[in-house]
Amino acid sequence: MSVIIDFSIFPMDKGDQSLSPYVARALDVIKQSGLPYELGPMGTSIEGEWEEVMQIVDACYQELRDDSDRIFLNFKADCKRGRTNGLASKVQSVREKQR
Fold first, then answer.
1. CB under 8 Å to 3, separation ≥6 — which residues?
2. Which domains does the chain have, with CATH numbers?
3. 72, 12 in Cβ contact below 8 A?
């Protein structure tokens, strides 16, 4: 079953320093997966089959866990049989209906 997730992951124990280097590391993991993804200002969306998407979420966690004492991870998922190119088509469908 196809799934699109929107998720955020970052360490919570880095004080006032920017978290963008950690987010970039997670994004590198996502990019290396080869799955379609979209970076947004508050999270990243990934599309694929459940098992492969969850493997990426776990790989992002593994990437940050060795140098983080506390990690925030949040995600939501939309699962639908037979969907392809959902990242683009869901947005396009809404834009077509705008006035």
1. 47, 48, 49, 50, 53, 77, 78, 79, 80
2. 2-97 (3.30.70.930)
3. yes
Query: Whole-prediction pTM value?
Result: 0.90
Write out pLDDT tens, residues 16-52. 999 999 999 999 999 999 999 999 999 999 999 999 9
- The H-or-E segment that residue 2 falls in is strand 2-11
**Beta strand pairing call for 37-39 and 2-11:** unpaired
Computed over every residue of the chain, the mean pLDDT equals 95
DSSP letter string, 32-56: HHT--EEE-SS-EEEEEEHHHHHHH
Secondary structure letter of residue 17 according to DSSP = S
Q: Are 81 and 1 in contact (CB under 8 A)?
A: yes
The tokens of 17 are what? 């320093």
Give the pLDDT of residue 91.
86
